[in-house]
Amino acid sequence: MPFTTVNDISIYFETVGEGTPLLMVMGLGGSLRSWSEAQIERLTTRHRVILFDNRGAGLSDKPPAPYTMPQFAADAVGLLDALEIDRAHVYGVSMGGMIAQHIALDYPARVRKLVLGCTVAGGEHVVRTPPEALKILTAETTGDRAADIRRGWQIMYPPEFIAANREMLEARLQRELELPEQPRFAYEAQLGAIIATHDTFDRLPALKMPVLLQTGEKDALVPPGNTDIIAGQIPHARVIRYPDAGHGYFIQLPEQSADDILAFLEG
Cis omega before residue 66 (within 30°)? Predict the structure, then answer.
């Protein structure tokens, strides 16, 4: 299994495909298995895709808290260093989109093009998560891991998508259960990094590389107005909205979202 030592931790990673490197950064509590296999397959037709588990998640180390956004960004760049990659496209979703912002702001020479999905600028410049979604996000585990994952579907996807795609979601659930459960302290450490250390609003105009923003119009966790806030700070950013998609737009529309990314990266 591919691990490498980055900063103070061991990071688990996988690389697939050939071409210009594309670093993919997953969100809160997720692992590299949280991506859509169909989306990855599409992206690997043109790019060398680099997938990894953030500190505190998946098979990567889970050191004690606190965690910070600059730390997550340094981990990602450290992985590029370990792979001897000078520059890569960077694609992050949700918390991964926050990390991707810090990568692009703190290490701009390492980023070719930037894709930010269903994410926020942070600080006071946010459209807040609705209380009912926040309650699910911060709920204690029940001891039934599968039930907890199914509960999370409510803030990832619109109800009609869940009803129509139960078999696919159950198959994804089984893949997630093959990995060790994320310790509660690590989940809270990641969440703490979002709350305490992410606010890029005033720095976003400094981004000079091409930027693509993707959002689902039915996102119940990160309201799509957050994309408008980011776009207002990056006038040259391109915005793509998926009318019937939720927070997990990249799972709902893997081929379409991948094709939109490919068109942007190759444009």
Answer: yes
Round to whole Å and give the CA distance between 32 and 11.
11
Q: Is residue 96 part of a domain?
A: yes
Residue 47 in domain = yes
pLDDT score of 1 more than 80: no
What does the angle CA 102 – CA 95 – CA 154 come to, to the nearest 5 degrees?
165
Residue 65 confidence class, pLDDT cut points 50, 70, 90: confident
Number of compact structural domains in the chain: 1
Q: In angstroms, what CA-CA distances link 109 with 87, 103, 150?
A: 7, 10, 40
Range of the domain at 204: 3-129+183-266
Domain assignment present for residue 135? The answer is no
Whichever domain contains 76, its CATH number is 3.40.50.1820
**pTM, entire model:** 0.97
pLDDT per residue over 77-119, tens digit each?
999 999 999 999 999 999 999 999 999 999 999 999 999 999 9
CA 175-181-186 angle, 5° bins? 130
Residue 154 lies in a domain: no
